[in-house]
Amino acid sequence: MISSAYALYFVFNDLPVYLRLSAAVLFGLVWGLMILNLDRFIVSSMKKNGSRWRELRLAIPRLFLAAMIAITISKPLELTIFHTSIDYEMEIMKHDDIKKQEEALAQRYAGDISLLENSITALQGQIDVATSERNALDHEARIEADGTGGSSRRGLAQIYPLKKADADKAQTELDTITAHNSPLISEQRMQLTKLHMMVDSMQQNIQRGAYDGFDKRLIALATISERNPVIATAGIFVMLLFLILEMSPVLVKLLSPRGPYDDLLEVHEHAFTNYRIEKIAKMDSDTKERLARLGVNVDFGSANTAPA
Question: Where are the domains of the chain?
Fold first, then answer.
């Protein structure tokens, strides 16, 4: 009864506490009464007829049913006994689950983020290359103008205009590339910022509240049982305890000698059998008399009717 109420308390985890408690207590009482009557039926239906083999053959299905009941009701009690270790393990499971969700979310948008970052880098790289070329040509024009360049003559008419024209051309190309790439870079940076904000918002919305439930507790119990042999052994002994408790009525009935109850039961069943035979015979006799008055002969053995 206690184990079933405990299990049901975690099944309806989304309901308010008072509703969960009420439902758990009510179901626990119903379950306890059902198991009690089932045990009574199992024991009372076993009869002592002198044949041990026949009694054992009839007891095997009842022992199997008792074993299934014991295994079913022992598991919630294990959850209660090891609740401290289970709560600790569930915190670890919760952290791992959140981490996996965050990684999956980041991986989902990693391609879009990488594409935008690569595009921004490429566009900015074009501007940087054009800037470097412009700076180099502008430097050559300046040193040619002050006489420190390759000709070593200040403002040489044949070379300086050419260097200056190359620098101006590079500046024009830089202005063109900058005018084309800068809006794209700004737009893509905005898209990248929005994408990062969306991912951060979705990660914040990942369930971080109560991490509970009957299934999760069973998983946690299985995990700590695999990791800790002591808990696994203790769980086996809890199940064995309930196996003994559930199977003991059947085993006691099976191993006990024939007693007064069995004699009284046999007398009662025999009396009922005789009553049934007499009742059927009387009904057949009354029916024959009524049909005889009507001029009809009835053979009850072959169920054929014939006129007199």
Answer: 2-91+212-259, 103-204, 260-308
